[in-house]
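Repro case for the chain-ordering regression, as requested:
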Amino acid sequence: MDPLYIKLAIGGLAVLGSIGLVFGIGLALAAHKFAVEINPKVEAVLEVLAGAQ
Amino acid sequence: MVKRFKTYSVIMGLMMALLLSGCETEHRFIKKVAFKGDDGIAVTFAAPVDDGWAKDISNFIVSEKPDPDIMLDIKDTALNPDRTKLTISFKDSLNQNMPHILTIKRIISKGRPQGTATLTVKKLYFGYLLSILIGAMIIHNFVFTKYLGLCVFFGTSQKKSTAVGMGITFTFVIVFASLMSWFFYQFVLKPFRLDYLQIVVFIGMVSLSVQGADTILRKVNPALFKAFGVYLVLVIANCIILAVPLILADNEYNMVESFMLALGAGIGFLIALFLMSSVRERLELANVPVSYRGLPIAFIVAGLFALSFMGFSGMSIF
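-- result from build under test --
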């Protein structure tokens, strides 16, 4: 294979991977910063209920 | 108070710059150059020019900017009585959406040569932006002329309140997502020659902006978040929101043009949803044949809307 293509593909992987990483961390930080306290009992009750739709 | 005044003056300055950018010229002897009517270009000189020179149409060469070797046929030229304003008329009408290159050779004013001028003739930029906005909103309405985003369109147009809520959410998300996609296309994908991955990246950008809006809105404005409800997530599944970044990438729009197109697409979707929901609320009361109730009659109504929106096709503003 042409080394140019390999270079291009690796470059693409690196660029898209870093974009994904940066935004993933950004979203995780945002979720942490803007976290809303949910009563854990609500989730527990929902878990017990029948879950069709 | 002072701060507000400052912001206003900055905005006014920006608008003036936009307006003025349409009438600058590249030659000191020519004050203004603009399209006139369908098939003419008007040139204003700083001083009276010679009659005999202006009559000779071989002094003028006009072409569209993308193909400089195709000269347009000039019919004749006419000089105003005060000999400072020249109107060049053409055999065919001009495509004014395209910038034109006008070369004026060996200008002679009062017997003295003033050199050769090469000028760009284009429409006012502000008008161009407005035509992008109205075009995306009504003339090329994404729902009624391109049949995009139909799933969300039919899914959320049963009630007027949900339709308007969806339309407003959609407008916010599409403006944010397309500006971000534009930025990444221009400054990351193009320099790294990765434009063949544009669809993947644009889908990522859309889901990212929806997820971000979801997370932040949940904390900052729970009332609005409740009002948006499930629609915020539904926006991801809309294809208009993916079509707009692809159109931006194809047409090489700049940032302001991208903003206008995204805003127009969002408001156009809002208009479509509002119209459709108004009709569907009335349809509840109408006596529709049993087999047509629900979705089938909605499709027929959408077809009628599309027919009426065809009336706008081919219109051009400014």
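Ordering looks correct now. The mean pLDDT of chain A is 84.
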